[in-house]
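Hey, I'm writing a tutorial for new members on how sequence and structure tokens pair up, and I'd like a real worked example in the thread rather than a made-up one. If someone can provide the structure for the chain below, I'll link this post from the tutorial.
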Amino acid sequence: MNLLYLGLLLFVTLLTTLYLASSKAIFAFSDWTFHAARVEEIYLNLKSGSFFTFIAARTFHNTGAASFLFYPYIFFYPWAFLRFILSPVNAFYAWYALVTFATATISYFSMKAYSKKSLASFIFSLVYTFAPYRLYLGGAVFGEYLAVTFLPLLFLGIYEVLWGDKKKWYLLAISGALVAYAHILSVFLSLEFAVILFIIKLITSRGISKDRIKSLLLSAGVCVFLVLPVIVPFFTDFIGQGLSSAKPSISYTMGPRYLLLNSFSAQKGWKLSFMLMLTILTAWAFIKSRRNWIIYGLGLFACFLTTRYFPWKLTAGTPFEMVQLTARYLSYASLFLTILFALGSSSVLEEHVTGRKKLALSCSLAVFMALFSLSSLSVYRDTLKHVQDMPKTSANSTQPAPFKRLRDYNYYNQFNYKILFGAFDYMPKSSLTSVQKQNSLLMHQAYLNGKTLTLSPLIKANQISYQVKSEKAADVDLPVIAYKHTTVSVNGQKHAFRRGNRGTVVVGLKRGQNTVTVGYKASPVFYLSIFISILSWLALLIYLVNFKAKYAQ
């Protein structure tokens, strides 16, 4: 049955992706330009023979922004590699299909391990993978979109450590690492629910055994080793460097009425599906086990967190403000409520369906979810028909990227606009004290001898060069961000520099023509962290092979 269900999940994945890809266009909204620029940088660096990307030399207006250091990007490599064989638009949709099918597969096997029921696992995978909120994330919010892929495995790992087979601690270690490589904020959100589950475990079981504590600590410790390349840059380059990050604030909450009524529409967006809303309204009537009551309570609580009735004002000045958009909790509400929906609906169906009818039912469910998803995505397709193509703009434009349509022939137009969300993330706070400073970076403005110069960069992977002619010895303030491990050379010779009042590289020049090159050289600790991480993954793989062999005997 596994192959049948995986085949049906692949069918729905391909059908929905081809429906979008047939438009031959992309709607560049929300976080699209931020992530598309990151992928473009990775692709161009790979093309030039550089595997690692540290700073934005080719994109982000050549400011040298280090979003790559502090925002994980490993799961963008498949998208970047697809650019070598496909057009820009098709490369994105091929990556979209890969992530969707990975989500469906992980969801299916995670639920299968939890419930031991194939039909329930299939229903769970369908409803979770093609939930309206996840479909919304797949249009532009790619960090969260990737993290959602691994949430079922993460909470399976938490369940195994706290209630199930504690010997399967590795599930929590692996899934935690995968979420961290996708989206750091999702790690924080997941920890909130993990702490709640831990407290519930202490209350319902009147404590927790030492063996389970050891498994929990072991999974956490191994997870840290697996994600060292994500953690290390924060210690080597962020802490104490006066850098900014995404602004912590609760900027939007929903009303319960909005969540309730909106969930019965067919569109994708900040909502639950009507199936999950019905689960909220009816699940209490058929829940019998304590375990399912806990899941139901978590689903309701996640919904409550999305609304303005939760006292979010009390979180001012606390780490909880990092949430920014409370709609993020819809991913967790979808996860918990879909478990109940899958268990309840599969139990009812299996009482009345056997043999060939079960095959017909499975195919019917796949077709229904495909049609439901196509209906959700139809508004996106309609938008692509009516929105205008993104026009050209100057290479140093300060105009924010508009919500416009991208096709293969105008795909590169987006990179000349100011990135709408995240253009100045992880820059020195001194860079952001005025709009004038921000715009001077976008317009490639340097300062020399009291004059403003507009320079044209010469670009290589992780490296930006400028030709600067000075009539006398003087300091030049270049439009490139200075980080702790930034390197500077003048006329091919390593040169000292300081950070200016824009947070940029300031270097002393001699009289005459000078070639100033700004680059980034990662600390040896970073490369050591990669080595340790790879060894940890290999050691864990060997452990799993031996564990499975021993478990099978």
